[in-house]
Design brief:
Length: about 325
């Protein structure tokens, strides 16, 4: 369903914020192969259906990771005429007869129709018509300068009519290229009627509940932790999100493994991906813990109790008070 939702709502530049293992990168790989073979523009009557002279790029956090993405495309092309699938094999054989592989390396693939796919950790110096930028959240946190290079170099290599997919889980809190692109996409108009242009970024969010496998059979007698109950009460109250007991148990067990990183790995709503504390932040994990316990909240004023206010006047920074 996630793949179908993304496919049915594709835009020119797409920012896909997601939970793990939803099949998004696989869908983009198949779309890239499809784009390298078939024309996606309007066809003139009698014109060829086959694509010509298009450049595609896969940009991942490392070259080995990008190589794995390209391997998916190579496998899909090789299996077009798979003999154990006779119905599709007939069509696949015809496609491979018209579009033959010209060159294949670990990080490159091309066909005799002039289309090619480059894979790596950057894409500067080429004008790409179809780009897949993946795990920009990881790159933003661990290699900030590299993320800036991807943003300025890669995105500037596109033009009107280019397809771009920025697909990632988020890291780094409220800073970095990933956060900037996410906020830019969220602020973009939602539809063409509202002013969405080919330079705007369409925002997509897919949560962990959209994977039907994210469940654990929960017996009736099982008692959930207080913070699990409180968490899903908030989701229901503020976002009208209701889950089954099997989903609640999956989440509780996953959180026991990931800790506060659960907000990055398996977010329920887009807003919480910035809740996980940044590596090195002072008291970050402690603050997130007491927030999850409901101890940071709005409270009624109790005039019978004293209120204490603590000030840090600051020297080169702002005055702060608690």
């Amino acid at each position: 369903q996630v793949q179908l939702d993304l496919f049915n709502n594709l835009w020119w530049i797409n920012y896909v914020l997601k939970s793990r293992q939803l099949g998004v990168s696989t869908l983009i790989a198949i779309l890239m192969l499809d784009y390298s073979i078939f024309r996606w523009d309007d066809l003139v009557t009698g014109g060829s259906i086959f694509q010509t002279h298009k450049i595609c790029g896969i940009i991942d956090k490392t070259k080995p990771d990008a190589e794995k993405k390209l391997d998916k495309i190579k496998l899909a092309y090789d299996m077009l005429d798979y003999k154990d699938d006779p119905i599709n094999a007939t069509l696949g054989k015809e496609i491979k007869k018209n579009i033959k592989t010209k060159s294949r390396t670990k990080l490159y693939m091309s066909w005799d129709n002039g289309c090619s796919i480059y894979a790596g950790d950057a894409f500067r110096g080429l004008t790409g018509q179809f780009l897949h930028i993946t795990e920009i959240g990881h790159v933003s946190l661990h290699w900030p300068q590299k993320a800036i290079e991807i943003k300025t170099g890669t995105l500037n290599a596109t033009h009107e009519g280019s397809r771009v997919f920025i697909e990632t889980t988020h890291m780094g809190g409220r800073s970095g290229v990933s956060y900037d692109l996410m906020k830019l996409a969220q602020a973009s108009p939602k539809t063409e009627e509202e002013g969405l242009t080919y330079k705007d970024i369409r925002f997509f969010f897919f949560n962990w509940m959209q994977d039907k496998d994210n469940v654990i059979n929960c017996r009736d007698s099982y008692v959930f932790k207080d913070d699990t109950i409180r968490y899903f009460d908030v989701l229901k109250k503020e976002y009208s999100i209701e889950v089954s007991r099997d989903q609640m148990l999956f989440y509780e067990k996953a959180k026991s493994i990931h800790g506060e990183k659960i907000y990055e790995e398996h977010p329920s709503v887009a807003e919480e991906v910035i809740a996980s504390s940044v590596v090195g932040s002072i008291y970050g994990s402690t603050i997130n813990k007491i927030r999850s316990e409901g101890r940071i909240a709005d409270f009624k004023v109790m005039k019978e109790w004293p209120m204490y206010c603590f000030w840090d006047v600051g020297m080169t920074d702002y005055t702060a008070f608690w």
